Structures are given as structure tokens and as C-alpha cells.
Amino acid sequence: MVNVKGGTRPPWVGLGAAVWVQIASGNAYTFPLYSHSLKTVLGFNQRQLTMLGVANDIGENVGLVPGIVSNKLAPWVVLLIGGLACFFGYGVLWLAVSETVTSIPYWLLWIALCIGTNSSAWLTTAVLVTNMRNFPVNRGTVAGILKGYGGLSGAVFTEIYSVLLRNSSSELLLFLAIGVPVLCFIMMYFIRPCTPASGDDSAEHGHFLFAQIASFVLGLYLLSTTILDDMLNLSPLISNTIVAIMVILIMAPLAIPIKMTLYPSRPSRSETLDNKAGSSESLIQGEGNAEKTEPLLTPVSSAINQESFYDDDGNESEVAMLLAEGEGAIKRKRRPRRGDDFTFTEAIVKADFWLLFFVYFVGVGSGVTVLNNLAQIGSAQGLPDTTILLSLFSFGNFLGRLGGGVVSEYFVRLKTLPRTVWMTVTQTIMIITYLLFSSAIKGTLYPATALLGICYGVQFSVMIPTVSELFGLRNFGLFFNFMSLGNPLGALLFSGLLAGYIYDNEAAKQHSLHLSDSTVACLGPNCFRLTFYALATVCGIGVMVSIVLTRRIKPVYQMLYAGGSFRLPQSTNQ
Q1: Where is the Nodulin-like domain (predicted)?
Q2: Fewest Cβ atoms nearer than 10 Å: which of 51, 123, 133, 490?
């Protein structure tokens, strides 16, 4: 049984610690930083490199195992497993890139990359499941903040890579193999189930606003310093100062529990959800307590219709059973309705589950294809350095994740507008960005990359609370990780099988080589043009499916957010 920490401060301490772990969980976003070394040092062609990119995405997003065990193991155990996966996976990659060990086979590197990036699934599951349960009535806000910091992780690692590690791929891999596990071990104690925080405390809204502003300032700082470092030759002192300020900004959310300690507020009438939802531990109890029941007849109807039952049936025992059910003495299980707590087998037979999966698959699958090939896209269009491109995508990714949570939370409470509306809007914009990429018009690469990053980030911050609202928090870890399979599936189809083949084929044409011998770079807009056309077409289908999904789940949001505030379903209160 999981121990639950009481008090109003522990959830905020856990959220502040989760920020660090969420940034560390973005280690998979560093693939573009060292992918060129895999190609040059180990002699891989573009197709082999894109298949490593697929391994990167499979490891990052295949989190069914952590999703299942998140209901059985304490968060610190999940974090421990994630730290060990990071150590072993990136450790093998470091041995290969640093040439400490030569002749490591390709298949072993592929597996090692899967293991290393799978740490992301373990770390993300630990912090998301724990904090969504600690703040159950602010799911969109919490998801936006945590996934926003996750979106900034690429820029954080880029800052470390360019400033501290001086663009050394081998040192970056060593940093991932040692630094991330150490961070997880430090944060284990603070990320734990707590008595759920109240959603009615006015100070709580201010705390969330502070966390959102702090993350935005951090994102803006990372973008500006990355560009500054790329343009100027900064001295070691200035570079170290930049990193020190970055660390202080990442620590900003911890100011919330410190303020609560120094200036404690009076207990309010609804300081916690003890009377409404018990504790976050109640959300992970066994299925024996999760039965959904309802009286089949009300006392009034049973009294009125008693005579007719006897006349029609004549079976006194059946009538007695119906009357007992009507009076509530006997209860019959019913299937859960959308908004209740579902089991996995109950959820996968629902059309809404698969519609949401497909829409998310289209959004993140197409976006991650661009991310995995961002360095080659920039080089094909004549950019000598793609560091700024990655920083722009990361900053846009952060804005999309943070803004998607904030905007969807605002409109769902104000207009009971389903969150999936924003997936429809952003995937429409993604069609435009892919057409901009394919046109290769001068001056459009940077804004298109930033815009795509924003739309890509929104998919995460919308999918996460939507899953919990439609299918409950009890098995949220499993549902979230199953939905996340859309990312590697999209990477396999769009990046591994499509983009890599088109790139190598065009490179072979340019250099009059056989396709299997294509180890040279491809230049020009034709390298990815067909890929962008395909991605735009897929997003068009995603827009139509998301419209259908939004119309279907509109009544659910009208029920959950009637009156402008979230109503916890009864099933989560048991």
C-alpha cells in the first residue's frame, strides 16, 4: 500500500521536484545533437540513421510497462528503474561514439538507444501520474506545466551541450548516462502521493500562475541565450554564468512551498479534497472497490409498480429481488460511462478511445518526423548549423504544451468546449507548415519550424487531460502510455519508412549512386518535398477525425464542467 503524505505543501514540493525530472525525461530530444556523430564516426547512411531515430521514439514512448506498474509500485521505484535504463542505454552509446569500444554492432546500438530513451517513459509516468492525482481538479493546468517543462528539455540540453560541453557528442552522452540517474536518485523522496490539493483555494490559482510565468521566462531565456552563444564567442565565465542562471530559473517552482512555509495561510473551508475524494491513494485501490453500481429502480417507482409486477409475472421471488434492487439493498454492476473510471479492457472497446488515439498519432507522428530529420532538413536547405532550428522547435514545443494546457483549461471551464478542438485547430495549422517546408521559400524555414513546434506541443497537453477526463484517473498511467504509442508508430511509418527512403533515393540521384551506397548528403528542397506532401495529407485526415471526436464527446464535457468547475465523478471518490 502506498503511503500518502498529508498537508498542503507536499503536493507543491512534489510538483517543483517533478519539473526537474520532467526536464530530464526529455533526454530523447537530444538525438539531433549527437546523430551526426553516429553518422560520421560509425559510418551510417541516412536510412540507418532514421531507423535509429525510430528506436529513439520507440524507447521514449513505449511505456505500457511503467503504465501498468505505476498502480503497483511507489513513484520512487519507477524513478529508480528509469534512472538505471538511462545509465545502461546511453552508456553503451557513449562507448561507441567515444570509440572506447570499437565494432559495436548496429543492432546492439539500436537496442541500447531504445533502453536509454525508455527512461523517458518511466520518468514521465512517475511524475505525471503522481501529480495528476495530487491535483485532480486542475488536470489541464498541471499537464500543461509539466509537459511544458518537458518541451523545454531540448533547449536545456542544447544549452548544456553548446555552453558547457562545447558541442561534444561523446561528452553529452556521458552526461546523459550519469547526470540523469543522479538527478532521479535525488528527487525520489519528494515525488510521492499526497493528500489532493484543493481546487477552490484562491492562492492555488496564484501558485499555478507563478509556475506558468516561471516556465515562460525560462523558455525565453533559453532561446535568447542559445542564439547569443551561436552568434558570439562567449568567454567561459559568461558561459558558466548563463548555465547558473538557467539552474536558478528551473528551481523557481520550489519557491511556492517555501512561500507556504514562511507565510502560512489560514485553513479554508475546502483546503483539501478529503471530504470529496479521500486521498490520492484512493485512486489506485484495487478493482474490488471500483465497481460502478446504481439502483435499477427508485423507491417510488417500486411502490407504484409493485402490483403490476405480481399481475404480469406471478413470480414472487423475482419481484422481491427487483424491489430490493429498487430500494438499494442490492446493487447491480453497470458499465462505466465516459467520465467514470474505466479498466483497460473497458476502454479499448470504446470508439472515442481509438478516435483520440488516431488524432494524437497523426499530430505527434508527423511532428516527430520533422524533429528526427531536423538537422538534415536544415542542411538540405543550406544551413551550416542547425542548433538554432532545434532551439526554435523546442521553444515552440514548450509554448504549445504550456499554452495548450492553459487555453484548453480556460475554455473548457468557460464554454465546456472539448479540449480536442485545439487538436483540430493545430493540425489545420500543421498542414500549412508542411506546405511551407515543401516550398523551401527563403525565410520561411525558421518561422515554420517554430510554428510546427507549437502545434506539436499542443497535442501532448490536450491528449493527457482528455484521457483522464474520458476514462478516469484510476488507470491513467496505462491509458496515457498506450496513447503515447502514436509517437513511435508515426516515427516508424513517416520517418523510418518514408522520409529516410525518399532522402536516400534523392541523394543517390544527385550523386549517381546506387541507393544502397547512399552515404552522402542530399541537398535541395526535393530531399523532403514528397515527405511533406504526405504529412500534410495525413494531417488533413486527422482534422476530419478530430471534428468527429469533438462532436461525440461534447456531452461529456457539458456534464463534467457544468457550472464552470470540474465535477469529480462518483467512481473516483470511492
Answers
A1: 11-258
A2: 51
